Amino acid sequence: MLNLALFGPPGAGKGTQSQKLIDQFNLSYISTGDLLRKELAAKTSLGQQAKDIIASGGLVSDEIIVQLIEKTISGNPGTKGFLFDGFPRTLIQAYILEGLMIKLHTSLTALVNLEVPNEVSIERLVNRGKTSGRSDDHDTVIRQRLREYEEKTLPVLEFYSDKGICHNLDATQAIEEVNQQILGIIHQELSKQLFNVVLFGYPGSGRGSQGRALAKAFGLEYVATGEMLEEEIRSGSNFGQKIQKLYDNGELVPDEIVIPLIEKRLARREGVKGFIFKGFPRTLVQAYILEGLLKKHGASIDLVLDLEVPTLELIKRLDQRSKTDRCMPYDTSTEKIVRRLQEHEQKTIPVIDKYQQLHRITRVNGEGSFDEVFAKLSEKISQGIEGVTPPA
User: Fold this and answer.
1) The pLDDT of residue 134
2) Rounded to whole angstroms, how far apart are CA atoms 41 and 353?
3) Each residue's pLDDT tens digit, 59-98
4) Going along the chain, which residue ranges are E strands?
5) Which of the ends of the chain has fewer CB neighbours closer than 10 A, N or C?
6) Based on the structure, what is the number of domains in the chain?
7) Strand partners, 303
8) Is residue 252 domain-shared with residue 353, that is, in the same domain?
9) What is the C-alpha separation between 99 and 155, in angstroms, rounded?
10) What is the CATH number of the domain that holds 44?
11) Considering 190, 209, 236, which residue would you say is the last residue of a domain?
12) Highest-scoring range by mean pLDDT, 126-130, 338-342, 357-361
């Protein structure tokens, strides 16, 4: 999730840059000023409380602001991220935002501080006041707002500077130049985060070979439960011996064995940019567990891909594979192939439906040559890493 805060004195250009970033990254926009003006127009209880404070150039209380912010956040459950304009304004609000981000299992990606001299702010706002009709766009109120900003808001910069995510920009430059510099900051911060992909697809869709190639191309760790189980068997560990016994009896490996192996792999994070999960989660229970495991390691699912291949093509591919050294246990007869496809439909399709609600599935046509499908998947991952929402 990409979460940005645009910081700066009145007239720094936060609104202009916000609109560009919303369009570029498909973010949910949260402007405390806009939210307050809507409350004022609707003559709500919160609006009436804020009316006199805004007219005099003062800052609205945190009690009012946090109610508006939380209401807006809860109204955007499927968002790809938030852009905060005019929030946090105070140190207390910075702590409030921390709490709200934790509630969403995420954090603020970057705070971009747009710097302009006071006289530039005053000139811009006075000019805006000639056409905006806003009661706070005149000289006396503007100077009061700037004083409030300097006294109460600048400590927020220190708060985020200590976290290493505060970036200062000269906002007197041309609009496009400022935007390009903000994009550079975003890509810099996103490169520090783990990028996690779940790759779905029926058996025979090519998700294994594609997953390995994508992991290598993007510097991600490939996590496939089947390979992990085989590694345990080869190692001769206690888990490995239990897995072998289950295999010999034709039984499925239970979550009590699979989950600790997944968690052990997640713990080996040094030098890893993220993970591609193939074959996990297979069930709704595993889906919930994976969310929790990633959260434990300060990460989340960033992209869910579903390779779509027609059923007859899947059967054809699996039958062809049964005649090679890549044959899987369920490839050995048409009856077994059909049973495996049915099992996927019964257990994994509900997981995909759940992920559609939580993360939005990006569907990719899995027909064509390996290179053609790889190119399509690579494009989606590149868009995701750059913070752009891939089309479904």
Assistant:
1) 63
2) 40
3) 678 888 888 888 888 777 667 789 998 789 888 889 989 8
4) 4-7, 28-31, 82-85, 110-115, 166-170, 195-201, 221-224, 274-278, 303-308, 361-365
5) C
6) 2
7) 197
8) yes
9) 18
10) 3.40.50.300
11) 190
12) 338-342
114 phi, psi to nearest 5 deg: -85, 110
Q: What is the percentage of the chain residues whose pLDDT exceeds 90?
A: 35
> Which of 140, 162, 190 is a domain's end point?
190
Q: Which domain holds residue 295?
A: 195-385
Across 333-364, b (16+ Cβ under 10 Å) vs e yields eeeebeebbeebeeebeebbeebeeebebbbb
| Average pLDDT of the segment spanning 255-266 | 90
Q: Which are the contacts of 175, defined by CB distance < 8 A and separation ≥ 6?
A: 13, 16, 17
Residue 165 DSSP SS3? coil
> Is 182 in the same domain as 210?
no
Q: Are residues 32 and 138 in the same domain?
A: yes
Neighbours of 129 (CB within 10 A): 17
Nearest C-alpha neighbor of 230 from the set 222, 239, 221: 239
Average pLDDT of the chain is: 86
Q: Are 318 and 331 in contact (CB under 8 A)?
A: yes
- 184 shares its domain with 200: no
* CA pair distance 216, 210, nearest whole angstrom: 10
Provide the pairing of β-strand 110-115 with 82-85. Answer: unpaired
CA distance 286 to 289: 5
pLDDT in tens, 13-39: 998 999 999 988 889 999 887 888 888
Task: For residue 388, name the pLDDT band (cuts at 50, 70, 90).
Answer: low
- Answer with the residue of higher pLDDT: 97 or 272: 97
Arithmetic mean of pLDDT, 4-10: 90
First to last CA, the chain: 17
Tell me how far apart the 2 most distant CA atoms of the chain are, in Å. Answer: 83
The answer on pLDDT for 2 being more than 60 is yes
What is the DSSP-derived secondary structure letter of residue 171? T
Sign of CA dihedral 31, 37, 38, 40: positive
Q: Is residue 392 part of a domain?
A: no
Q: Is residue 12 within 8 Å of 170, Cβ to Cβ?
A: no
Contacts of 195 (CB under 8 A, 6+ apart): 218, 220, 273, 274, 302, 303, 381, 384, 385
Percent of the chain as helix, strand, coil, to the nearest 5? 60, 15, 30
